[in-house]
Amino acid sequence: MAKRKSEWFDWVKALLIAFALAFIVRTFFFTPIIVDGPSMLPTLHDRDQMIVNKFKYRFNEPDRFDIVVFHANEQKDFIKRVIGLPGEHVAFKNNVLYINGEAVEENFYSKEQDPALPFPGPTNDFTLEELPGGHDVIPEGHVLVLGDNRNNSTDSRALGLISTEQIVGTTSIIYWPFDRMQTIGK
Asked: Main EC class of this protein (predicted)?
């Protein structure tokens, strides 16, 4: 009888440790997210399931073209691409990205993408000053984010600049559906 109690206690202890480790990993290191909508096409598809790295930005700042997940409001997280960094001026003119007056190539669109997917059309011209907040440069602790599908994305053009405190983490791994399993580059 004592042996059964010992086995039962060992199982309970193992399960509690497993749940505790899962909780710690999900809370502080990695968490899943499901892409909701077409705003990141052609890079990410609606219902793609991804892993969010919550750890990276504890020690590093976001880089240009990182794909980030952030709290858009209390109920909703958005997934977008970082375009502008602190201290920079951002503008789009004639479908060209300008950072501090210099043209920057956005080479993250796949040249062999599925022809059935909409390729992002032209990005409407704008300057940082025209966005909510009216900043002339991106202030410290903030980034400018845009969806890859610029004609169908709620991003910094509507939301304004995103505080780095709103950022949950970065993501680059699609794990489901199986036929889309891949690592997304910049």
From this structure: hydrolase
39, 54, 56, 153: the active-site residue: 39
Q: Name residue 66's amino acid.
A: D
Encode pLDDT of 26-45 as tens digits.
666 778 999 999 999 888 99
CATH number at residue 80: 2.10.109.10
Residue type, 111: K
- 139 found inside a domain: yes
- Cβ-based neighbour number of residue 154 at 10 Å: 14
| Residue ranges making up the domain that contains 88 | 31-183
Q: Decide if 111 is catalytic.
A: no
| Residue 5 domain-assigned (yes or no) | no
Going by pLDDT thresholds of 50, 70 and 90, the confidence category of residue 10 is confident
Return d(Cα 180, Cα 138) in angstroms, integer: 35
Grouping H, G, I as helix, E, B as strand and the rest as coil, residue 39 is coil
Catalytic residue among 54, 56, 80, 156: 80
- Kindly give the pairing relationship between strand 142-146 and strand 162-163: antiparallel
For residue 11, tell me if it sits in a domain: no
Task: Look up 80 and say whether it is catalytic.
Answer: yes
SS3 state of residue 82 = strand
Q: What dihedral angle (degrees, nearest 10) is formed by the CA atoms of 35, 38, 41, 46? A: 40
Nearest Cα residue to 119 out of 171, 5, 42, 44: 42
State the pTM of this model. Answer: 0.82
